[in-house]
Amino acid sequence: MPNILAVAETRGGELRKVALEAVTAARALADASGGGEVHALVFGPPGTAAKAEPLAQHGADKVLVCEHAAYGKADAESMSATIAARAAGFPVVLLSASAQGKDLAPRVSARLNAPLLSDCLTVRLSDNAVVVTHPTYTGKIIATLKAGPTPVVVSVRPNATTPAANARPLATETIAPASDPSASRVKVTEVVASGGAKLDLGEAPVIISGGRGLKEAANFKLVEDLAAAFGNAAVGATRAVTDDGWRPHSDQIGQTGRLVSPELYVAVGISGAIQHLAGMRTSRTIVAINKDPEAPIFKVADYGIVGDALEIVPALTAAVRAAKQAH
Amino acid sequence: MSAERVIFVFVLLVAAGFFSLNVQRLIEYLRLGRRENRLDHPWHRAWNVLRIGIAQAKILRDPVAGPMHAGIFWGFLVLTAGTVELIVQGIAPGFSYEHFLPRPVWFAYSASQDGFAAIVLAAVAFAFFRRLVLHPKRLDGDHTHHGDAYFILGMIGALMVTLLAMFAFTGAADPAALGTEKFISRALAGLLHGVSPATAAAVAHGNWWAHVLLVLFFLNYLPYSKHLHVVTSLFNVFFSNTSGPSQKGVMRYMDLEADVEQFGANDVQQLTWKNLLDGYSCTECGRCTSVCPANITGKPLSPRKIVINTRQRLMETVGGLPLVHEHAAAGDGRHLLDDYITDAELWACTSCRACVQECPVSIDQLDIINEMRRYLVLSESRFPEELQPAFESMERNGSPWAFNPADRGQWAEGLDIPTMAEAFARGHRPQVLYWVGCMGSFDERARKTTVAFARILQACGIDFAILGQEESCNGDPARRMGNEYLYQMLAKNAIETLDRYQVRTIVTACPHCFHQIGNEFPQLGGMYEVIHHSTFIERLLQEHRVPLQTEDGKALTVAYHDSCYLGRYNDVYDAPRETIRRALPIVKLVEPERSRDRGLCCGAGGGRMFMEENTGKRINAERTEELLATGADTIAVACPFCMTMMNDSVKSRDADVSVVDIAEVVADRLATA
Amino acid sequence: MKIAVCIKRVPDMESRFKIAASGVAIDETGLKFDISDFDAYAVEVALQINEKAGSGETTVICLGPDVVQETIRKALSMGAEKGVQLKADSVPADSLAIAKALAAELKDGGYELILFGKHSLDAMTGGAGTMVAELLGLPCLTAASKLEFVNGKAVARRELEGAAEMLEFPLPAVVTIDEGIARPRYPSLKGIMAAKKKPLDVKPAQLGDVRVTVEKMALPPERPAGRIIGTGPDAVPELVRLLQTEAKVL
Questions:
Q1: ipTM of the predicted structure?
Q2: Which residues of A are less than 8 Å from C20 in CB distance?
Q3: Which residues on B lie below 8 Å from A281 (Cβ)?
Q4: pLDDT digits (tens, 9 = 90+) for A80-126
Q5: pTM of the model
Q6: Residue B538 and residue B577: Cα distance in Å, rounded?
Q7: Which residues, including other chains, have CB under 8 Å from residue C83's CB and lie 6 or more apart?
Q8: Cβ separation of A146 and C126 shorter than 8 Å?
Q9: First-residue to last-residue Cα distance in chain A
């Protein structure tokens, strides 16, 4: 009956969705292996303990709360020291493969001299070892990895687990950091939100791109509206459009512009010239909206809608906005 | 010996001595450049001199300035004989060709001196008129030396005036001294009947002096002037490779194993002596720049400036042609690149060869640009950042675009086209290899051309195969962009594949592949007969091997756009036009203003396909407007790059004109299609 | 600055991968290999730091069989001064084992800065750099998208989900490099020629226990073929449904 230590991530004192995913994953792993306990370890500024309830709801038998004024921001050095200090006896330490989790997990692994399994899709225990699946080769190959003997440090990929309720009575224990955060050598001086500012094409998870099918520069407003509906989207354009001055050259996606591979690429009124395809073909999901069903863009698109972009895009914008609100 | 003769001989010796000193210096300066043999195929070179030099073939392409220049040039050739006579008279008074020339020859000679003096004078007058009144645009820009031009023209005019005056006053002094063949001078002499014979004789003698002194001054002024071309251009034409003897447009071979400090050229020392001679030979006429697609559309490149800068930098490096002492050429920390020529100029070039084609004295502007691009890429890794993905992709994926090499043969799926590997596995060696090229393999639009040509080959029963996955970029774009290292890697790889299948005959629909494999692979040991699809289809049509529909087809109005690598590089102008005519019996073929060897580039060559075009008007827009102005309903191309450029531009104009490849025209007309 | 950059040799990710007969590795035939992207950024960062300072030395370290020498030469052709191959028959899946081998090499190197890519494109573990820092007791910054030196201190930026952190830390330190920080230069032929003459030491890798093994490698389920789901605005609800349930991007 192995116990699992799950690290529940917070930012600015609030639990993140990945925290619930980590606890859910840990719960499932413990249950699948005979029903050990899940201890959730959460770092945060004073007052965090009061927000620990959802961790119990998602299956944490015990919530270890490590509060410190410094934990409004991350402090990897003292956090990893604390996790390592509390990890004794746990065969599996489970973290999120978020930006913060990817920072912490290898530190914990090195401190415990325990092997690391990173960014896992699935996790199971097998005798004295942990077996996971993990995307490799930029996701083109799924590897099954085995690490052992335990203890093993595991990080789970965000969004790979759906948070599931599995309520326990809330039992919190307050613990102190294993090292003084103020003595940490790496200091977070500032956390800047990147949501409001214009997203860079290279970083945006969603890109809405417009081509000559939009007919005139003013119609790029429709593309911008769709991007705004997604919230995390940037606006791109084809070379033809930037050449004609409808959009700045910095917006150009393609061989001579930016090479991008977002999670979702929506090509609006783009026929799919070789120079454009070369810049976006590797996007994870591609949606094409074009009036010509023979357009090459449909050859690379996962989903296509044939028709006038000027009619379809506003409808899509409304639908996306509705879907986002329902979420 | 009279004092006058002593003075004359002294002046003559000083002038000749100083001139020969400067000629020696100029030749010495050429040695600063790299060595290169330009004495191969002397007969072909001599023929070039006759055709381009003596017969002024290229000069006469300009209907206005052409005859003007030819008049002056031929006048100079003829009058030089007279000049020799006049100078000898200065040493040996009374000397005349008349004493030893047969009567009719003498008569013709004497008449020519009179007639050509008048022709040259008229041409000079027109030249002044042209410069002062007509203001041809091509003479401006690049800080060209207008003052120098006026001075030279004035001097030539003065030479003619003094010559005619000498004749006229000689005739006025003694009508018997002027033969009837000199009818112009006699007419002028007739106007001088009020002048006493003694005065006339003195004035005639004065004009002799003025004339010979001007000749000697002119000779010594030339090395300091852009009009040095008077002396160097015939040599330049002889040593040039731009009209053969070897294949035109072939980039210089580069030994990458050579233990050199740098690759390519950033200064005159790394150019060849011939590039430097080009600098001497440029008279800044601007024909090259006036046809340069980059220059026309407002980019910073001017081929004329590249050549002028080469001369300027050479003169700066060697300290020029000082009158008194020479100072040693020391490293001055300056370079042709950066201090004269910028990166932006070099990258604006589409390698279309229009400048080279146009130059009347066979200067190779493109060779200098290519060598400097090589320096930028190979020595400094300096190039527009958008080229890096193209380079990396060629290296990793064997195509300038990041497409999966495994998909190269995808277009042929279900078309029953064997790969070489498949044919060999069956123990068959196909007669013809169809080299598809990267555009033809990966670009959706170009794939239609690829399929069209394949269908024609099949319909004609040609025994052909493709390489499929084994085909890989032949490196031409890399070479044009200065990346010789990547080029040689790709080209050697391609040659290995071709040789593995004992390929002898290759057909391709891409003029760039056609030029590269056919004309440049021999440098690396790849010897194949390469036929562009325009020529191949035209031959099949000529032999009536293409099963065409019997009815006439559509009555299209077609404007054919010449591809640079097909046309100016390989002189294929008629095959694509003939192909269209034969496939569409009732077609109306129209020609844009600039066509055939004057055709305007589509803007994609020289690696421009892979670069941004942010400055000025877009070249494809300029070209498309010209093609649309013909009123054609169809634009025909014979190159996948031209196809993309024309298509883009036609689309952005919402013009109801289709852009088709000539293979598509024919494939559409196949019987049993 | 004396900088070490740890790099990895990986196949070109544009390739169409096949699983080897063993079932636990990819079939390497016909693949082209190069420096892993993030590692190439790290090399570029190191070169730029030293170019800006006008002095310094960049050493690239790569663990693996002799073929990795080609990868090291590539980094040398970009401008790094020295190369070290930590010779091993293969690169294990255990990043802690790799980290120990690297730490043993780096320990007495006197490096002021040790750079890694944020993760390799093949294994995608992203652990070795941080582990090396822990093993050597050095401060560590992961996934830097900006890195500068102000008054003897390093200042960096790190992207989080929907936010970014600005951080400060003293040297010596370990930094792992994210994309967007620098575009790796294209080696000139001059650089390629010079790289042939630069020192490349070969030492045995001290890997120790390898506790992570590959049990299996498999291709992910085929992406459903692209399809046209409809015409006009009527197709929008179906698109949104697919984006939510199938593609999971909404």
A1: 0.92
A2: none
A3: 402-403
A4: 999 999 999 999 999 999 999 999 999 999 999 999 999 999 999 99
A5: 0.90
A6: 9
A7: C59, C60, C61, C62, C69, C72, C73, C75, C76, C198, C199, C200, C201
A8: no
A9: 36
